[in-house]
Amino acid sequence: MIFCRDIDKKERKECMKIVITSDTHFGDPMGRLVEKNADANLVKGSKYAAFKEAAGTGNDYLILLGDVLDFSISTYQEAFETARVFFNEIKNDKIANEIIYAPGNHDADLWHTVEYQANIINQIEKGNPPRPFHLSLPGIIDDRKDSPSAGFTLPGVTKQTSGGGAQYAGLFLDHITNPSTPFNFVYPNIYMVTDQESVLMTHGQYLSPYWSLGSEWAPRIATEEDLRIGDALDLAEMVGMNFPLSQLACSGIGQAGPLTRVARLVQRDIKDRKMGRIEKYLDRLEATVDEMTRYPWYKQWMEWLTDKASEAIKKLVLHVFENMEEARFNEEFIYKKEVRERFDRFYQASLNEIGLLNRNYHYDLTTPKFVIFGHTHEPTAWGDPTAPWTKPATGGGLTPVTLYNTGGWLDKLDENGRRVFCGAEVFLYQTSRGFSSVRVS
């Protein structure tokens, strides 16, 4: 098997091959790329053959746009054991030479782990002081014929010079397979430029309210003097302000011991619009607060106020949960006004990052007019004339930005409670052919 990166440098520019997917959710029992057989052993899932056929072999890179390992659903052990089956299979099938991994919200802890390993653990082992986190580290793929920065690069990251293999790998996840597989970590964006187009690839979690909560509310509450951010929010600032909530929801639920089952039951009830358990929990919380705020007879008005406030909060929480619409399987998600506004903020922060990359590293990246993302599990084919598009309020000019979606590799429950596959879109790129995609349904 000969990969494009292994042949003569002049010819290599003619044959870059890439496959792009996301939302495999390894660890989620609804996943279809790896499943348990009758003996409860992890094996290739019922959709793996379709993935292999769509992806082809001999790709230079397999790009994973997040929610690959699912730590919010499963423990680390369950997620890694499931993922190991998949990564061993794609290695044996020679689907790609290297992997470029941009974590999403369910596997954000992988990016946090990379930050700790690269900037703290490895530094201390060398006798150096820890370095600041990158927060945002974009991957750049330049396939322009005459570009001086052609190929895949990580800006500001020192390339490996020994071994003649991958330029940037060597972190912990390489060893999920034996022999090892080169994993290149980026977060949250990949920018790809060709002679025909410019494409932004990302998971898409910053289009949902929870995952962008910190960067949306901190500037509203904290003073400019205290917060000290620039006039325009850059991507590193956006990632940093959302880091605490991201870490909590990504791994906190799956690793909470006895609380994990409770959290999963509540999650399931919210998705199914069943409020009985949640109302019971709120009643118990209300009783506990009432017990803790008993006042003497001459302050009974305080207890009355506390009870009224508690009742109002309970009603508000139930109302929010009853009307909550998650991003998963929601084909109307990207058309919502608040999502469009959130996309504008994310897109502008990405343009600010592109500006820094061009100034500091001379990439000469152009404004992305196409976005490939996951997160919603609603596949949209490359070139689909009905694909959603938007004209960003800032930075994008009059040219629309078209959004394509990778779908997801797991089942959902239909209105009758039956499992149905949500559908995936495998995106492909080859220098001589440009972008295309294959639907798996």
Could you please describe the fold and organization of this structure?
- Helix content is 35%, strand content 17%.
- It has helices spanning 9-12, 48-55, 76-92, 108-125, 213-221, 224-227, 235-251, 258-271, 276-292, 300-322, 337-361; strands at residues 17-21, 34-36, 42-44, 59-64, 96-101, 139-142, 151-153, 183-185, 189-193, 198-202, 370-373, 389-390, 401-405, 411-413, 419-421, 424-430, 434-440.
- The model has no long low-confidence stretch (mean pLDDT 87).
- It folds into two domains: 9-211 and 327-440, Metallo-dependent phosphatases (Purple Acid Phosphatase, chain A, domain 2, 4-Layer Sandwich), CATH 3.60.21; 271-326.
- It is built from eleven helices and 17 strands.
- Helix 5 crosses helix 7 and helix 9 (276-292) runs antiparallel to helix 10.
- Strands 7-6-9-10-11-13-12 form a seven-stranded mixed sheet, with no helix packed on it. A six-stranded mixed sheet has the order 8-5-4-1-16-17, covered by helices on one side.
- With 441 residues, it is of the alpha/beta class.
